């Protein structure tokens, strides 16, 4: 059983929902990323999504685009991201880490080399936004052989066929996009999500996390009433942007702790 599967199994047994925060590796600089990851865990994160910075992040809004630009300007690369995971693993062998990014850096390294390097660094899952399930059979097989979960996005526009494709290839959890738009957007239709998530879960057969547009404790709590996990990224990066460097980790921990407390108020809620 993977670390991701184990986390969801334990949370389900306790009637709790997963908190999955996102930060971009190398933002604001490479030396601060591991302390920020540890702050996320201290604040109550169950799984960490670590963004691999890319110059053309098509699914990301302005906030995460700025984070990628800062990280790339500081020299961050896929190889260095894997080094960050390795450093994090030296003090934390329990918290799952999911790399989230785009195909170009993976293709530049080579799919097989990437799968092996990610496994050796201690990565648990991979979400590559522009690898749709019907076009990445070999990549999926390579990740599975390395013991890594491949996580896919589903959205309000996803078809029943895409549900079936993701059920065949996906592992760990599904990242369900709460709205039509990019990360950090607003105007979530909670009622529509509440109707749709049970159908998605039944179709794919693995936990469903909801992200895009979740910015505070109140929205996290509403999502936690029907989802298996809440994913929050842009708002955390805004906290990093607004904080003096020496206060970044502490401020992020405080913010995440508030989200964790709100999410725990949904304990026992049936997904």
Explain briefly what this protein structure is.
The chain is of the alpha/beta class.
Distance between the termini: 22 Å
How many domains comprise the coordinates? 1
CATH A-level architecture: Alpha-Beta Barrel
Number of strands: 9
List keywords for this structure.
271 residues, alpha/beta, TIM Barrel, nine-stranded parallel β-sheet, 9 strands, 50% helix, globular
Structural notes for this entry:
By secondary structure, the chain is α/β, with parallel strands linked by helices. The protein has a single domain (3-264), classed as TIM Barrel (Alpha-Beta Barrel). It contains 12 helices and 9 strands. It has helices at 3-14, 30-43, 62-73, 78-89, 103-109, 111-121, 137-145, 160-169, 190-204, 217-224, 234-242, 248-264, and strands at residues 18-24, 48-51, 97-101, 125-128, 149-150, 152-154, 174-177, 208-211, 229-232. Helix 7 links the parallel strand 4 and strand 5 (149-150). The radius of gyration is 17 Å and the shape is globular. The chain starts with a helix and ends in a 7-residue tail after the last helix.
